Amino acid sequence: MAAGDYVFGTSQKEVMAIVSGQLIVTLPSEVELSIFKTGESFIILANQEFKVTVKNNTAYLCT
After folding, report:
1. What is the pTM (predicted TM-score) of this model?
2. Per-residue pLDDT tens digits of the chain, which is 63 residues long
3. Using an 8 Å Cβ cutoff, are 42 and 25 in contact?
4. Which of 21, 41, 43, 46 would you call most buried, defined as having the most Cβ atoms within 10 angstroms of its Cβ?
5. Is the CATH number 2.60.120.10 carried by domain 4-62?
């Protein structure tokens, strides 16, 4: 992902694994930001929306 701010939605449960870089994430129903770095992951349940900020190029795998 290139630097920027994004909003994603899910249709099914997804695991977001950070391959390189980091994502700054506002998880559903959360007010505080969470930072996920290389080797970390987080789960988003089905039918949820979440916000992501990318400061530097970042790669992730969604399963």
Report:
1. 0.90
2. 999 999 999 999 999 999 999 999 999 989 899 999 999 999 999 999 999 999 999 999 999
3. yes
4. 21
5. yes
